[in-house]
Write a structure and sequence with these properties.
single chain, alpha+beta, T-fold, nine-stranded antiparallel beta sheet, four-stranded antiparallel beta sheet, 9 helices, 17 strands, 28% helix, 29% strand, disordered N terminus
Length: 336
């Protein structure tokens, strides 16, 4: 589960209802999946759907949250028999499979045992060494699992799923789908920094987002690296500068390479991915953080439906950026 900390700042933070051009602004917020959510939309009827959306998010937790004892993913990880995973788990599985294949294994939701060993899961952090990593790697690999008639088949019972790198993004898409079914076309959904924006404001202004500068010990939202506009797209950001720990002078990031079994250590500090849906953006943000800047550039050549904005440190430690042409089109301003 991602922490309460986030990487994207939504530049629209007041909570209120007001009328503009016959459309009523509805905005509400709360907590979900160990983080926050903020839903903003314009509706001619002024309907407030917070209760329904919170129910939707609770139902989602009953599928994908490892912190809910009786969730589908918890049952699958415990190897309970005759567990039908249902449509949401199936969608998470299929999207993960697609990103896993196209990223060359950089994104892998069977990474659960390694996440726990490195201290980013339930158990107390282990003193991880090569021996422990070698003992866990045989249980990592999306090729070791399959989905057959809504049931998960594992090659080894020690395999455990961890959908944290896609769950928040997918839940954003679910809320967006709910709003569209209610006839709402202009909305902005933010769950833990994973964002989906459709339509625009009644005055024709587009939704604006800020990409946070990756700086240690800064307050959240304290400094921005860039401001973008968002229309009919989703954006998710992943980074290594917030969730980590240091031991014996070495920083260990929460982003773990499923191939090596170790937290990634490279110059890439954060990546924001633009996609048609938030689940895909979320998964690819993690895949690119694992892959590093140069490998990500190569992957992006074959992914025309994705755009990305990378922040990395050069040899002198100064912040640098690289972004795709498509991302340049939505970039309003870059800060020093």
């Amino acid at each position: 589960m991602k922490s309460l900390l986030y990487f994207v700042v939504v530049l629209f933070i007041f909570t209120y209802c007001t009328t503009q051009n016959n459309k009523i602004l509805i905005k509400f917020s709360g907590e979900t999946q160990g983080t926050y959510y903020v839903v903003t939309y314009y509706d001619t009827q002024g309907q407030n759907y917070q209760d329904e959306i919170e129910d939707l998010l609770k139902d989602f937790d009953m599928v994908a949250s490892m912190w809910v004892e009786n969730s589908i993913i918890s049952k699958v990880n415990r190897n309970e028999t005759e567990v039908e995973v249902g449509e949401i788990f199936t969608a998470l599985f299929e999207i993960s499979k697609d990103v896993n294949e196209k990223s060359g294994g950089a994104f892998d939701p069977t990474i659960g045992p390694l996440v726990n060993a490195w201290g980013f899961g339930f158990p107390d952090r282990m003193k991880v060494d090569q021996h422990i990593v070698d003992s866990l790697l045989p249980y990592i690999g999306f090729d070791k699992v399959s989905l057959e008639k809504f049931e998960i088949v594992k090659s080894d019972p020690h395999i455990q799923f961890d959908f944290n790198a896609i769950a928040q993004g997918y839940s954003v898409d679910l809320v967006g789908q709910f709003l569209e079914e209610k006839g709402i076309e202009d909305y902005l959904i933010d769950i833990g920094g994973e964002v989906l924006g459709k339509g625009k404001k009644p005055n024709d202004d587009l939704w604006k987002l800020g990409i946070e500068k990756p700086t240690d010990n800064a307050e959240y939202g304290e400094g921005l690296k860039a401001i973008i506009h968002l229309q009919n797209k989703a954006m998710a950001t992943s980074g290594n500068y917030r969730k980590f720990y240091e031991e014996d002078g070495i920083r260990y990031s929460h982003t773990i390479n499923p191939k090596t079994g170790y937290p990634v250590q490279h110059s890439l500090l954060s990546v924001s991915v633009l996609a048609d849906d938030c689940a895909m953006a979320d998964a690819w943000a993690t895949a690119f953080m694992v892959s590093g800047l140069e490998r990500s550039k190569e992957i992006l050549k074959n992914l025309k439906n994705l755009q990305a904005y990378f922040i990395y440190s050069d040899q002198s430690g100064a912040l640098q950026t690289y972004y795709t042409r498509g991302f340049e089109k939505i970039l309003i301003e870059e800060m020093e």
